[in-house]
Amino acid sequence: MELREGAAGVCLNENNELLMVLQGKEDEKKTWSVPTGGKEDGETFASCCLREVWEETGYRAETIEELMVKQAEIEEIPIQVEVHYYAVKIIGGAPTICDPDHLIHEIAWKSREELKALKLSYPEDREFLLRVMS
Predict the structure, then answer these.
(1) 130 lies in some domain
(2) pTM of the model
(3) Which domain holds residue 23?
(4) Percent of the chain predicted with pLDDT > 90
(5) Which residues of the chain, if any, have pLDDT below 70?
(6) Do 5 and 45 contact (CB within 8 A), yes or no?
(7) Minimal CA–CA distance to 28: which of 132, 128, 113, 105?
(8) Count of the separate structural domains present in the chain
(9) What pLDDT, on the 0 to 100 scale, is given for residue 13?
(10) What does the alpha-carbon distance between residue 88 and residue 62 come to, in Å, rounded to a whole number?
(11) Is 29 contained in some domain?
């Protein structure tokens, strides 16, 4: 079974809002996620996280700490997935979509209450993200 590795950036602002992106292919229903993507050759998980934050949001960030590693099997495809989630801090940039895959449609800061109701790309992340925002 193929292994796909990636990383995600979990960023809170001074109002305890979570940096999220609305994503999806042009012809599919769009869903929300923290900036997330696949690891490229030669990248560490941390450098993948920072690249994805920049590509999907236009923000430059630094990692603070690794929060969790999600491992899953998607039998329909079939693949194994390993995603490393990092707490990140914005250190520069401005909200701009730089995504080379053209899958990002909106950048927004979402409150804890909004997160409870959003249609997520990865619904299994909701409880984890709510805990991070507590």
Answers:
(1) no
(2) 0.94
(3) 2-121
(4) 87
(5) none
(6) yes
(7) 105
(8) 1
(9) 97
(10) 6
(11) yes
Q: Is the peptide bond before 100 cis (omega within 30 degrees of 0)?
A: no
Return d(Cα 78, Cα 99) in angstroms, integer: 26
CATH number at residue 69: 3.90.79.10
Q: What is the pLDDT of residues 56-75, one digit of tens each?
A: 999 999 999 999 999 988 88
pLDDT of residue 7: 98
CA 80 to the chain's CA centroid? 18
CB atoms within 10 A of CB 97: 15
> Could you tell me how far CA 56 lies from the centroid of its own chain?
9
Is the Cβ–Cβ distance between 45 and 53 less than 8 Å? no
Q: What is the pLDDT of residue 59?
A: 98
No. of helices (H) and no. of strands (E), the chain: 3, 7
The confidence score (pLDDT) of residue 75 equals: 82
Residue appearing with tokens 């590509």: 55
CB 53 within 8 A of CB 88: yes
Q: Which two tokens stand for residue 96?
A: 């701009």
